[in-house]
């Protein structure tokens, strides 16, 4: 197979389809989403059989249990995909929304219209349900999608893709609006991220290694976050109950998510009072604690934290703890070590809450709330395709609006510039 | 001079200053802008003397009259810089603006806060007034600026920079918030566009060659437009007076601007009626006409247009004209040849106006208005640092908001995720 020629063809088809999808009306896009749901429902056996091939290959290749679990497609998993499609169909269509249409002194009216980005390339790893999620969000936001899943999920992804295409066809839309790369050759990714004439933005979903590699080599803009080194800072003026509740939830509600707290900062004035109860709560849940010297002077069973700990996303039941002099020291620590994902202050102090919100340079900044809330569903976006820690374009959880842009519109009545 | 080491130092200083400027209050930023205006007013002789050196060097190097004109700093030019600074001081501060703060079912409040991008690198050519414009817009939007002007304007830019620094100092702000690159070595640009750790976005202002080079080599996001191949389409249902007025204004009000029309499209049904009057108006103003075969069959003194004409930004009194079958053909032509800057339809038809607005994929799309309106001042942005034809981040005229991003803020009362 000539990978370059194949990818050029995929790109051309995607660009053509994107023009149709961009102006498809909301009803037609919703029909396609619901038809995809029907197609998945009718293809359960086929989907599970295809997935069985992937699982068998994966076992033979010696994939670990966690990877095999993420790869697996079950009846319950198909239910979730179907439910997700119906939810996206129920969301408001962002495309064509006109805002801020105002008369100017010259008599023209100037406003903004929300428009699709064009063609979105999604590169992801083992979870086949991403195929449905990504396809549905791109379609609803009026974009064509080029999907490149992991090689270990190729049969599952192709089976899901057949249902997606059936849905597009049933709704009278161009089937090329969602294309799955048919080859597992790595060169296909290299091509996809370097054809700005056909692909407008890349969304990588996967481990840090994948995302770093793509960001480095891409000639197309990338919407990404590398990692989530999130902080909770317990201020001098924190309410003790809220501090305990939030700090425990932020670490222990789930360990493997990017919005999980990795470093707890605590004001020196409250450390002796609060750290023992916090340590007990963490240790009861089996969380390993690594702390600065001042932390170790207050609680037992704490490993000495090194410089590395402040810059590590554990994604595991491990927490680093640092006692800081005051909020300023906390902000300096955060702006130095944070991955600009999510940080939260626990305080009852009005002035400090305002200052923390303003001075912390992260994509989500919170007061008295768990970092675990940093999520498209929790924020009311209806869905998310990922979380961006970049400042350009989308920032924080990226929902349908993050997959669109805006153009200016000008309405006149024969107006000319004098 | 070790350029790499110098640029690293500039970058580090900019990054440090950006943290101070990001949280500086509006009053302090406005004081700095007004103090810059005072400093320029007090330094007129010094500015004109420095500019004289650049003009003398330019003459010796044989720069042409147009370039020397753009390079020149006069008393009236200084008045304009001062006026510009006062205008920017008068604009609302975008930084810290909180929008869409809404309660979610969980009880948390989620909203967005507008924040600076960080450090903005501006690369521009001969006009020294850009130094003041760029510095003022970056400062007001809470960003540090690294400015790299053309080598031919180095003395003028340094003299202006001294006034800018005086203003920052008078207001108690870090003078490194605006830095002018002190060397004319080209390597400095190469460094500046490849240090994402210190520079968050590059705004190139200049010819297409400069912008293409920077876009190709940058490892930092670039806000740019390459060129302005703008279209006016006169529809079957156009009002004849509006068509003449707008089509003449869009081409002839100024020839060298990016929002000037370069190609006129006209519906076949109206060509015989309208083209003769249009041709006369253009030819009276000395505009050279290049047309398709159908155009040449209707009007005289028209050169045969080639494929090249449809993709050329003349920036000169030259216009290409194409007779098209209908609006669909016009949209296809535009989406093929346009640089996605600005397009306008002249029509009285409600349905077609809606369809044109939706289907044309450009950063500004107009109905019955001259493309010349595509401008930050005309759109009410108060000022603009450039026009972006990209879809990610800012699109169309880029004002203060385009130099900012948004972060999510979450306000809770000890809320945790269940």
From TrEMBL, chains A, B:
Its EC number is 1.2.1.41. It catalyses: L-glutamate 5-semialdehyde + phosphate + NADP(+) = L-glutamyl 5-phosphate + NADPH + H(+). Pathway: Amino-acid biosynthesis; L-proline biosynthesis; L-glutamate 5-semialdehyde from L-glutamate: step 2/2. GO terms for cellular component: cytoplasm. It is found in: Cytoplasm. It comes from the Bacteria. GO terms for biological process: L-proline biosynthetic process. Keywords: Amino-acid biosynthesis, Cytoplasm, NADP, Oxidoreductase, Proline biosynthesis. One of its GO terms (molecular function) is glutamate-5-semialdehyde dehydrogenase activity. Residues 10-284, 302-374 form the Aldehyde dehydrogenase domain. InterPro entries: Ald_DH/histidinol_DH, Ald_DH_C, Ald_DH_N, Aldehyde_DH_dom, G-glutamylP_reductase_CS, Glu-5-SA_DH, GPR_dom. Belongs to the gamma-glutamyl phosphate reductase family. NCBIfam families: PRK00197.1, proA. Catalyzes the NADPH-dependent reduction of L-glutamate 5-phosphate into L-glutamate 5-semialdehyde and phosphate. The product spontaneously undergoes cyclization to form 1-pyrroline-5-carboxylate. This is Gamma-glutamyl phosphate reductase. It comes from BD1-7 clade bacterium.
